[in-house]
Amino acid sequence: MTDEISADIRVLTGMLENGESQEIMEYCGRRLGEGSTNPYVFLAMGMVSYYSDDPGLAIQLMERGLALNPDCRELVDGLAGVCTRIGRLTDGLYYGKLAVCLKPRPDAAALLPNRMASYMDGIRNVSISHHSTNAEAAFQLGLFDEALVQAEKHLRIHADDVDCMMVAARTLLALRRPSAAASMLRAALHHKPAEPWLHALLGEALMGEVRHGAALVHQKLAWELAGDDDKLRGYLAGTLAMQSDAGLPGANVLADAYIAEREAPPRRVKANVESRPVPQFGVMWDQIYDSPLAHCVAPAIRQMPNTVLYTLNPRHDHMTETMRSSVMRPRPSINIDDATLGRIVGGDQATCLINLCAPSEHARFPVFKGEKVPVVVHWVTFPMCDRIPGADLVLSDGETMEIDRRSYGADKVVEVRSLLAFEYPQSLGTEDEILDLPRNTRGFAMFGVHGEPSRFNEASVALWSRVLWAVPGSHLLIGGYDTWEDELTEWALAAFAEYGVAGRVHFQQPVDLTAGSPGRAFCHMVDVVLDTLPVAGVVETATDLWMGVPVVSLRSDCRAGRVGASILRAAGRPEWIGDNEAQYVEIAARLAGDPKLGDIRAGLRAQVEVSMLADPGSLGKEIALKLEAILARRQRAS
To answer: Which fold has domain 2-123?
Structure first.
């Protein structure tokens, strides 16, 4: 064994002299794979990791080596130096004291840099980990992969840092890895079991694991622990809209309590807006960064004169600039409380405020008081509970009218021809081509479901299984993405197995980047898309129709479940909307077997492009004119 250690030390010393860090890691990995227990292998890997800006991994590696040989002086010196330099002074002092009791090995001295072998030099160079700050910054910029790398590096140094755990969990949720996020949040709850944000985020992660009942438990706990945290309560009110049918009654109780609390007189913001001959519109939005709804909102608000955009999310990208260029004046309003934001809106003399906030910790719902206050309008969110606090008016179309009247009262409903309209691409790439009908090449009908797990539940699986049984030999592709957590695939296959169709259910595989995005590839693979329930798809549905794929939607009993029907109505295809589950199954089966489905697919884009769904400019003008008329009447009445 001693000869093996000496041989390893000679090889590693030579590599260090030549600066071959990658070769060192490969050599050490190979030796460990061969069963080596040489502590100096771990020392070499630890030093390479430290100088590669991953001190946490360096500590983990060297502690593993020390467990194999507690008498290795060089490992103890390395741990003392690294721990001290990154601010873990108690650990550094422990290893520094331990080192003086151990005997060094002369031929291994080169494996530890001279400065690292000096504990006193470490004391003179004490620093802190910047990985946590870097993770937060990367997350806010939307650089999720980098944010996760930085958070993991920090947590290898400070494994009990709950704030960094939350950044990592949010990042995992953004990367569509809810099971990994849930594991991170459970670990954080061991350190802070009464932290409401941990329960709220865990609720969202559990929704992504299709565990709506368990999610509601944590959402209720977050609500009870929230105290005066308006940011948290707004976030919860939005995520509750994703609950399954079984959880909606409990979710609605919390949402109603939130709205009543926000609209209570003591919580209202005083505002005084001067009468203006021309209305000034305000648009409050928390999801500008890369928002799929921006292609609907931006072209519509270009038609509204005198518009101020209140941006609530700190991220910046090309979509943010698109929105900024669509308004008269952008006003960053990040990290401002409701009361201050309300006073800013009043100071801007915004006579009408369109609140587009959705589930997000950045959402704001100021409720005004005074003789002359802005008229707050609820248009569309992504998704949101059926009613938002402080809204005086709600924009509705033929699909959402019934629910909006029930939620707001008939006198607060403003009807428009279409709730949504999208700006579609003007130039087409290869991935945008409408290909031949997939069933013609496969020999069987392929249904598709967009793989947003928070929109899955037992009821939707039962309904989709009925569709598969109604069309013998048909299959179902869960797609739109090409990476899936094992937990989701296991749940889905087990759920479909109860109906005897697990063998006909597939998940979309990774696509060649030259073939375009997973979403576009998904459209090429399916004959008919089945909408999710009780929360319907939004941008996915609009894109599927433009790509020539029929979509079947079910009218749910909540606003978020009617948007799919609204899009189909605007596209001129109301016959693809089911009033009940039997109709949903019948429509899907009829489309899958329709001998003219190929013609429908070939002509659907042209139909969409001349429909209301592809005319956001007209929608924006209609909204502006109707709101201007209402404001004018109110001004005359006052």
So the answer is: 1.25.40
Q: Which tens digits make up the pLDDT trace of 546-604?
A: 999 999 999 988 888 899 999 999 999 999 999 999 999 999 999 999 999 999 999 99
* Spacing of C-alpha 139 from chain mean position: 11
Q: What is the pTM of this model?
A: 0.86
Q: How, if at all, do strands 446-450 and 375-378 pair?
A: unpaired
Alpha helices in 192-280 (DSSP H): 196-208, 212-225, 230-239, 248-262
| CA distance from start to end of the chain | 94
Average pLDDT taken over every residue of the chain = 86
Label the pairing between strands 329-332 and 393-396.
Answer: unpaired
How does pLDDT run across 489-539, given as a tens digit for each residue?
A: 999 999 999 999 999 999 988 866 555 577 788 888 999 999 998 889 888
Token pair in block for residue 200:
């709220």
The matching CATH number, chosen from 3.40.50.2000, 3.40.1280.10, 2.30.30.100, 1.10.510.10, for 430-614 is 3.40.50.2000
Residues 255-293 pLDDT 10s: 888 888 888 888 888 877 776 667 788 888 887 666 667
CATH class of 176-262: mainly alpha
Q: Please give the Cα distance from 291 to 307 (Å, whole number).
A: 19
For residue 214, count CB atoms less than 10 angstroms from its CB and return exposed for 0-12, middle for 13-18, buried for 19 or more.
middle
Give CATH for domain 280-415.
3.40.50.11380
